[in-house]
Design brief:
The complex is a heterodimer of chains A (about 425) and B (about 190).
Chain A lengths: L4 H10 L9 E5 L2 E5 L3 H12 L11 E4 L9 H16 L17 H7 L8 E4 L13 E4 L2 H10 L1 E5 L2 E8 L8 H12 L7 E6 L1 H4 L3 H9 L8 E3 L4 H8 L19 E6 L6 E3 L7 E3 H4 L6 E5 H4 L2 H11 L8 E4 L3 H9 L1 E2 L2 E2 H7 L3 E2 L23 E4 L15 E5 L1 H10 L10
Parallel strand pairs in A: 2-3, 2-4, 4-5, 7-8, 7-10, 8-9, 13-14, 13-18, 14-17, 18-19
Antiparallel strand pairs in A: 1-6, 11-12, 11-19, 15-16
Helix pairs in contact in A: 2-5, 6-8, 12-15
Chain B lengths: L3 E8 L6 H4 L16 H5 L31 E3 L12 H8 L4 E4 L4 H9 L4 E4 L13 E5 L4 E4 L4 E4 L7 H6 L2 H7 L5
Parallel strand pairs in B: 1-2, 2-3, 3-4
Antiparallel strand pairs in B: 1-5, 5-6, 6-7
Classes of the chains: A alpha/beta (about 425), B alpha/beta (about 190).
């Protein structure tokens, strides 16, 4: 039977020859990831439910990144990080990356990639909706809550209903003014925030194949914004090269069969797509930057698992080089590794960090920061009637802090262009 | 499992995301400490913009004053209820506020899973849109066995969808109870 890449991976994880959409499966989990917001309640449920018999099914497969609320004086938030720390110590967990130590890795989804946990053909489950990011490596990755995570922690298993797949094919060569963020906003506008609910979103085509891992992760990252169970891009030479630098673990690659069944197939010519935004207050409220140009903004934000990768800052620097920002602009690298690259990689002899600092940006330490608002002292948090343009993933009411704020989602190019002018600006004006 | 659930409805619109159900800044509280966890009830739906809180008129508080529980035990929503983050704190907050059932046109996957697997609330799907047919405060009755919702003021009945394969988990009261019952875990 012809199968999609998602169906093949699920079949393998369920120990079956084949699976069909709608089929209920118990999957063997290869990696369970959690963080400071959902780790503590997950451990608590695990202890409560398994009691004296509570055993971690495989310590090597449990990965814990404090990343959400870590640079704050909020006592409850700090207590959560202490709970992670103690749990990691008590159970001698090899994959705990403590904040304040040299092991700190930053935002979980980017850290998973950088530390070599994203292996093609595997099943990766995390207590965070953007766990779907890891699908950029040709694996099945999805987010769950604490109860499901606690069950995995004790058994290594999760139930899933095999999803139908939707295919999104981008052809053509990606113009300089366009990024993966524009491509995923295009899809969101077309299918809306529940257009892929309970489905797999598979990305393919010449334009997708031309994207580096950073950009591929932007596509899969926002699959959940369309309600998708997972986003996935089959592994290729780009994937293999990225992994070769980070892990020696073996993996198995899967491809969709040419005659596999899809719920729907969308085809795009990237040459016809313009820079896009999602207007307040929903990621599917798409418009062209051209249509909203001139909208006054009070804050710019470049960061998060969606828009805080090296390529995102490099793109912003292309526009900010030799220019100054007119509104407060926050730079939050997703990981220490990204932050380090900003200090070493140069454009015309200047490091990217220097370019961003000289433009007047505020550069903060790596974490999730204000992408999801966070405690009151979180850097970049929106206040009052802020109008923010951001490279993050969600603009629901209150998402970045203030319920009265308006958030526009856009590519790093569009955010940088807007930072320079103080109004929403098409990056083509600077490129 | 209780088969008939009755009470006043609280009505919301489409795309009620997890930040509206429980804003991210409150996720720092313990979910297991009996006293501290009451805060989740207190802040339930505190992220819903006032104009859209309690339809059709809006401006109706879900939680009054310093209370940790709501007088509404049944939520009527539209499409894509619970979209956004994976926070299990969302259905937990509704449970702490006293919610027993949510009836929505459709759900985001993770919120639905969390509601069922954690056994916090019963998420049911309406057949078509009903959040424009019920007003906040309307007394309604839900019959779980027959999958109906009745507007008690005039007896108008609305059909609900059968929960399908997850019914045994709902009936058991959550994933762990189900797994124990079916012998998956000891």
């Amino acid at each position: 039977m012809a199968m999609t890449i998602t169906e093949k991976i699920l079949a393998k994880a369920a120990g079956k020859k084949e699976v069909s959409p709608g089929q209920n499966l118990w999957l063997n989990v290869d990696v369970l990831m959690t963080h400071d917001v959902c780790g503590p309640p997950t451990f608590q449920i695990w202890k409560r439910e398994f009691g004296e018999k509570a055993r971690i099914w495989d310590k090597n497969k449990l990965v814990i990144f404090p990343d959400h609320y870590i640079f704050t004086s909020d006592v409850h938030a700090n207590r959560n990080v202490n709970i992670l720390r103690k749990f990691a110590k008590d159970y001698q967990l090899p994959n705990y990356y403590d904040v304040g130590s040299e092991r700190y890795k930053g935002v979980c989804h980017i850290a998973l990639a950088e530390e070599g946990f994203n292996l093609p053909g595997t099943v990766l489950i995390g207590t965070d909706s953007h766990t779907c990011t890891a699908g950029a490596f040709g694996l099945f990755a999805t987010g769950v809550g604490n109860t499901d995570a606690a069950f995995i922690l004790g058994t290594g298993k999760i139930w899933e209903k095999a999803p139908e797949s939707m295919k999104f094919i981008f052809e053509g060569s990606v113009p300089q003014y366009l990024t993966a963020k524009d491509l995923i906003l295009q899809i969101l506008g077309d299918i809306t925030t529940d257009g892929a609910t309970y489905r797999a979103m598979e990305f393919d085509g010449e334009a997708v194949r031309s994207l580096n891992i950073d950009e591929r992760m932007t596509l899969t990252n926002m699959a959940v914004e369309a309600g998708g169970m997972n986003g996935i891009i089959a592994a290729d030479e780009v994937t293999r090269a990225y992994l070769a630098e980070r892990t020696s673990k073996p993996f198995e690659e899967f491809q969709s069969d040419p005659d596999a069944n899809y719920h729907s197939v969308y085809e795009y010519d990237v040459g016809k797509i313009e820079p896009l935004v999602a207007k307040p207050h929903s990621p599917d409220n798409r418009d062209t930057v051209r249509n909203v140009r001139g909208t006054k903004i009070t804050k710019c934000y470049i960061g998060s698992c969606t828009g805080g990768k090296f390529t995102d800052f490099k793109n912003a620097a292309l526009i900010l080089k030799g220019r100054e920002v007119r509104v407060p602009t926050f730079i939050i690298p997703a990981s220490p590794s990204v932050a380090k690259r900003l200090q070493t990689e140069t454009i015309d002899g200047k490091t990217i960090e220097e370019i961003l600092a000289d433009a007047g940006c505020t550069i903060a330490p790596p974490s999730c920061a204000a992408c999801l608002g966070g405690p009151a002292d979180t850097v970049g948090r929106s206040v009052d009637h802020d109008v923010v343009i951001s490279t993050t993933n969600r603009n629901f009411p209150g998402r970045m802090g203030s319920k009265k704020a308006e958030v526009y989602l856009a590519s790093p190019l569009t955010v940088a262009a807007s930072a320079v002018t103080g109004v929403i600006t098409d990056p083509r004006e600077f490129l | 499992m209780q088969k008939i659930i009755k009470g006043p409805a609280y009505v919301l619109g489409d795309n009620i995301d997890t930040d509206q159900i429980i804003p991210a800044e409150h996720l720092v509280y313990s979910l297991s400490d009996p006293e501290e966890s009451k805060k989740y009830g207190h802040f339930a739906f505190s992220g819903v913009p006032p104009a859209k809180a309690g339809l059709p008129d809006g401006g109706i508080r879900f939680i009054e004053g310093d209370n940790n529980r709501s007088k509404y035990n049944i939520i009527i929503g539209g499409s894509n209820f619970g979209c956004g983050s994976s926070r299990e704190h969302a259905p937990f907050a509704l449970r702490m506020a006293g919610v027993q059932v949510v009836v929505a046109e459709s759900y985001a996957r993770i919120f639905y899973r969390n509601s069922v697997d954690g056994g916090f609330i019963i998420p049911l799907e309406s057949v078509g849109k009903i959040n424009d047919r019920i007003k906040t405060g309307d007394p309604v009755q839900i019959d779980l066995a027959n999958q109906t919702l009745t507007r008690l003021s005039d007896g108008q009945q609305f059909s609900l969808k059968h929960p399908g394969d997850v019914l045994p988990i709902i009936e058991a009261g959550g994933l762990f109870a189900y797994a124990r019952k079916s012998g998956m875990i000891g």
